[in-house]
Amino acid sequence: MHITLQKSKTAKQSSIQITGSKSESNRLLLLKALYPEISLDNVSNSDDSQLMAKALASSSNIVDINHAGTAMRFLTAFFAVLEGREVVLTGSKRMKERPIKILVNALQDLGADISYVENEGFPPIKIKGKKLIKNKVSLKANVSSQYISALLLIASKLENGLELTLEGEVTSIPYIKMTLSLLDEIGVESSFINNTITVKPNTKTQKPKTLTVESDWSSASYYFSIVALSDVGTEITLSSYKENSLQGDSALIDIYKAFGVETVSYKNTITLKKVSENKEPKSFNLVNAPDIAQTIAVTCFALGIACDLTGLHTLKIKETDRLVALKVEIEKLGGKVDITNDSLYLHPSNSIKEMVSIATYHDHRMAMAFAPLALKTPIIIEDAMVVSKSYPTFWDDLKSVGFKITQ
Ligand SMILES: O=C(O)C1=C[C@@H](OP(=O)(O)O)[C@@H](O)[C@H](O)C1
Ligand SMILES: C=C(OP(=O)(O)O)C(=O)O
């Protein structure tokens, strides 16, 4: 379904309830399978979290997680230790192009029985669950932090815990710290010193405990962009957020200050306020927050300002090659973008073509990142329902902050 988006009367003040963090939810759903005593609140209603929950509950010997990267990586580790179970874990066409070898090698080094069904190094994979005895392994840490989180999530159930040595530069560190913090919340002890992470074994039954998932910060990024592109005085309130977030994308608060957006926390809400215009060129290293790169690039394009983004080496292996997708779509709109394997430079520009049809490449973030541009000029978003991967009610919420959407 293609939709046309344009500005209608933007309300000066509006409120949105954003669904739970997909990253926290997918970790906690797995932990709940290992520690059934815990209960969860505000779990994400995203496709990826629903697929994760379904996969954990399924007794089928084929598990298909479609486009869900975290589900693919976390379940690889989960099924590897599920004694007596044999599963083929597969996904979408794109998932079959997203590498998994670093994680599979690490699990095999620990003694797991995993083989490739089609292409070496990529899903689908066949996993025969067994008890893993070894407790030390090293892996490359500069490709995806999800491999590391996957190992950490099962670590406390290994007989001797786990000692992980991270090789090379570590990417997306806040996601690793999120995993360790959630383990801590359920009573699993760990340490992260230099490049070594140690997780202690934990076989004790936990006290029943409810963990409340914070709302999703990556989803909040689209409202930061909307406020940045709106008139001074515009406010949007988002819930439910916590004072000390585990999500690295909460870096949005500092990043969008540079666009004249102030964030005020009150109880469990954050209010984004446009306080000033700032058209200075921007420069950010996003190695710790890769999922907000598209949002920031489009904000800058809509404002006509130059933008230099670095630390983007993981973008090539996400739902699509996000660097190429950004370049192609921004250039269709009349912009100019230079990309390397890990950076993007957007040239300043002074016009945006009208009614351009934005391709979304099966990538929810392409659809959501380009949507705020409709505040400047009408645009078409192709395959709009792609947003359900992380944020199923995105288009309804956009209507409520004053966008006109037609099919
Ligand atoms: O662990 C997680 O929940 C995630 C880690 C990041 O991936 P990489 O570590 O591959 O960059 C991020 O892009 C993804 O959306 C979610
Ligand atoms: C990269 C993402 O997800 P995943 O890797 O879990 O598919 C994302 O949501 O932007």
Automatic annotation (TrEMBL):
InterPro entries linked to this entry: Enolpyruvate_Tfrase_dom (IPR001986), Enolpyruvate_Tfrase_sf (IPR036968), EPSP_synthase (IPR006264), EPSP_synthase_CS (IPR023193), RNA3'P_cycl/enolpyr_Trfase_a/b (IPR013792)
Gene that encodes the chain: aroA
Binding residues annotated for phosphoenolpyruvate, in chain numbering: K22, G69, R98, Q146, R322, R365, K389
Domain Enolpyruvate transferase intervals: 60-398
Subunit structure: Monomer.
Top-rank lineage group of the source organism: Bacteria
Active site: D291
Annotated organism of origin: Jejuia spongiicola
Keywords tagged on the record: Amino-acid biosynthesis, Aromatic amino acid biosynthesis, Cytoplasm, Transferase
One Pfam family in the UniProt entry: EPSP_synthase
CDD domains the UniProt entry points to: EPSP_synthase
UniProt subcellular location: Cytoplasm
EC number(s) from the headed UniProt entry: 2.5.1.19
Positions contributing to 3-phosphoshikimate binding: K22, S23, R27, S144, S145, Q146, S172, D291, K318
Biological role: Catalyzes the transfer of the enolpyruvyl moiety of phosphoenolpyruvate (PEP) to the 5-hydroxyl of shikimate-3-phosphate (S3P) to produce enolpyruvyl shikimate-3-phosphate and inorganic phosphate.
Family, as annotated: Belongs to the EPSP synthase family.
Catalytic activity from the UniProt record: 3-phosphoshikimate + phosphoenolpyruvate = 5-O-(1-carboxyvinyl)-3-phosphoshikimate + phosphate
Keyword Cytoplasm: yes
Principal cellular location given in the protein's record: cytoplasm
Pathway in which the depicted protein is active: Metabolic intermediate biosynthesis; chorismate biosynthesis; chorismate from D-erythrose 4-phosphate and phosphoenolpyruvate: step 6/7
Name used for this protein in its record: 3-phosphoshikimate 1-carboxyvinyltransferase
